[in-house]
Amino acid sequence: MQNGVVCVGSKLYSRDFPDAMSEVLPGVSWGLIEAFPTPAYWAYQVWANDQELEPINYKLGATLAEEIGACLLGGHGIPANVGLAAFGHLKNLGAFEGEVPSEALLEEWLTIPLKIGSRSVRYRFAKQKARYLHAALVALSVGGYPLSSGRALRDWLLELPGIGYKTASWIARNWLDADDVAILDIHILRAGALAGFFSSGLTVERHYLQLEAEFLALSKAIDVRPSRLDALMWYQMMSAPSVVHGLLSEAGLKAA
């Protein structure tokens, strides 16, 4: 048995975790709670984080239209600060309220340089993202989108152009605080490879649903909410690239 302790304010919280050598999943050991990035480490980190007084809020927008816009304007090839700046820019122009802007107008707005700190940045893929965003906003204005579960909303979003499993899962998790989907990218894939809970040879491009099932199985096995695990795992893996690359090299695993 391992004991984890966290101090929040004036309160001390304590929790026992299984022995490091015991299996959390078939063929996968718990590992030490202090050993990044074992299953026990993630279980402890999520539990410790959950003791904080402020609840986690994933939402980027105040409406589903805004949430779709924020997630769709970010993602692959677009730095987070640029995506959020583009979202804020369109929001200020009224893109997510009232009549849906035309595709041409959205593209025009997205070609306006963005002010990020002291820099002026041009948004990449303005034409492409304008087309995707216009289609999504039109579909949303028609209605009929399901909010009964994360997967139901994700399945609806997947029918829209330019929205794949990762973006659809991101929107569904954020808007519904859903625990039946996972936002999988290279950072989560690396965490799974290092901890051993992902089957080898799988990629998010070709095996998203299988990887998601394995991620959800780990979440259940370590008794944490998948949405919390996903967010914390992504943040820590993304924040320590040199450490992660070193561990991947030691384990003989590819970095990508």
Automatic annotation (TrEMBL):
Signal peptide residues are none
Gene Ontology terms for molecular function: DNA-(apurinic or apyrimidinic site) endonuclease activity; hydrolase activity, hydrolyzing N-glycosyl compounds; lyase activity
Keywords assigned by UniProt, alphabetized: DNA damage, DNA repair, Glycosidase, Hydrolase, Lyase, Multifunctional enzyme
GO BP term, example: base-excision repair
Q: Where's the HhH-GPD domain?
A: 93-238
Tell me which InterPro entries the record gives: DNA_glyclase/AP_lyase_Ogg (IPR012092), DNA_glycosylase (IPR011257), HhH-GPD_domain (IPR003265), HhH_base_excis_C (IPR023170)
Give the matching Pfam families: Ogg-HhH (PF22175)
Superkingdom assignment: Bacteria
Please give the SUPFAM superfamilies that the UniProt record associates with this protein: DNA-glycosylase
Q: What is this protein called?
A: 8-oxoguanine DNA glycosylase
Species of the source: Pseudomonas putida (Arthrobacter siderocapsulatus)
